[in-house]
UniProtKB/TrEMBL annotation, chain A:
Chief site of localization: cytoplasm
Signal sequence segment: none
PROSITE patterns: PTS_EIIA_TYPE_4
Protein name according to UniProt: PTS sugar transporter subunit IIA
Keywords for this protein: Cytoplasm, Kinase, Phosphotransferase system, Sugar transport, Transferase, Transport
Domain (PTS EIIA type-4) ranges: 1-124
BP GO annotations: phosphoenolpyruvate-dependent sugar phosphotransferase system
Tagged with keyword rRNA-binding: no
Species this protein is from: Acidilutibacter cellobiosedens
Cellular-component GO terms for this entry: cytoplasm; membrane
UniProt GO MF annotations: kinase activity
UniProtKB/TrEMBL annotation, chain B:
GO CC annotation terms, alphabetical: cytoplasm
Natural source organism: Acidilutibacter cellobiosedens
Localization (cell): Cytoplasm
Keyword Ribonucleoprotein: no
Annotated GO MF terms: kinase activity; protein-N(PI)-phosphohistidine-sugar phosphotransferase activity
Pfam family, one: PTSIIB_sorb
Example of a GO biological process term: phosphoenolpyruvate-dependent sugar phosphotransferase system
Chief location of this protein within or outside the cell: cytoplasm
InterPro entries the record matches: PTS_IIB_sorbose-sp, PTS_IIB_sorbose-sp_sf
Keyword terms of this UniProt record: Cytoplasm, Kinase, Phosphotransferase system, Sugar transport, Transferase, Transport
PTS EIIB type-4 domain: residues covered: 1-159
Protein name: PTS mannose/fructose/sorbose transporter subunit IIB
Amino acid sequence: MIGILIVTHGNFSVELLKSAELIVGKQEKINTISFNYGDNVEVLQKEIYQNIISLDEGDGTLVLTDVFGGSPSNATLLNMKNLEFRALSGVNLPMLLELFCLRDECNDIDIVAEKVFDAGKEGIKDLNGIMARS
Amino acid sequence: MANIVLTRIDDRLIHGQVMTAWVKQTKATRIIIIDDVVAKDDFMKKVLTMAAPPGISVSVYNIKEAADDLKNFQDSNGRIVILAKVPESVERVINEGVDINEIIVGGMGAAPGRKKLYKNVSISESEKETFLRLLKNGVKVTIQIVPDERPMPIEKAFK
């Protein structure tokens, strides 16, 4: 099973997971990291490193960060020097729901990453637009 | 001599929205990161450059290179943001002859040897001495995380 690591500023990662589990049930092989006010980026980078390794049981690890350019994403990118893993920024609930359903059936991390990416983008809809067209 | 519009100490260096806000506020055209360790790490240089606000150029220098670049800067329209992780880097570049009279401290993370000073700024004894020396030499040092926040003179946090 593909391992998942969510890294965000504050408790967004924790709460995002909690909300997703409300909908699709408890998940395994998933960790969250909260980067808080005053935390150290180098410590963050190491924590990400350790989690990527411990979550990988042969199918790889997918890291999801909150926003490109922020410390969670930067610290994740820096780990790409020494580790192989997939990572996406801009994590949202549609992505997680897609991911949890998909990884039960698919262990190819590149396929999963691509579908999760699409789900994240497609998850953003203009509700007024939908109503207007219905 | 270069037109330095902001000198900032933040050990997260360039990170998305916070840097974008400062760049907008100062109308900066260029970011110069000053750090001996980061300057040697090509991978980190690449990541930091990617995280920069669009349209702004980023250079990553060690102290000597930064001093040379800043002293010989030709572009009179350039507005430069200097970004360092620690106060020592700024002090050393001043000692190399670069004119800096104000520093804004935006973040120094917790670390062994450091104690929390104020908000997200933690400093060690030797970093405190560096700040005291800078203050003594007439450099204004304030703590300000984002442009909207009120700056706080660092001396107040030392009390």
